TrEMBL record:
Residues 1-77 form the GST N-terminal domain. This is Glutathione S-transferase N-terminal domain-containing protein. PANTHER family: GLUTATHIONE S-TRANSFERASE GSTA, GLUTATHIONE S-TRANSFERASE-RELATED. It holds the Pfam family GST_N_3. Residues 83-203 form the GST C-terminal domain. Coiled coil: none annotated.
Amino acid sequence: MKLYYSPGACSLADHIVLEWTGQPYEAVRVTREERKQPAFLAINPAGAVPVLEEDGWLLTQNAAILNYLADRFPETGVGGDGTPQSRAEANRWLAFVNSDMHPAFKPLFGSTAYLGDDAAIEKSKADARAKLRGMFKSADAQLAGKDWLTGHRTIADPYFFVLTRWAKANDIDLSGLDNVERFFQHMHADAGVQKALKDEGLT
């Protein structure tokens, strides 16, 4: 298997899960500029990471890749404990992170620059920070008494870890969210997480 990633992007979640599988894989670093070039656009016309390649088959979209890895390596348990309810919980929190939280960061990454008005752009960023604070507060409540979002390690956890890294880098108020901080430190101490971070030059 081959993972195309950009350092610190949401593809870090897939990178971590690949480490958790214990199976051989190749990680291919792709810069933001390279993602706009014909060579990479031939791999993913959207010009985005992650992309997972296996035996010539290309898979895009983070949620799809994470679920594929869960099915490909069921022994990891990252897709749940084998029951439909456990799998649904893993996907419930993956959807929360992928569909609700991730898009909420967009104004902080320049999506409202088209407004051309500094005050309006800053207002959009402030609104994004406020919304994200609320989402992290929900996650904090979910993490009460748990090391993982669902109670055991799933594909939702590395993605949430990535977004927590983004939050810390973008002045999201995480004060008082002790469960989120405990989760973050717990993840950061994981050997697979440390290896993925080191490989991406993020340590």
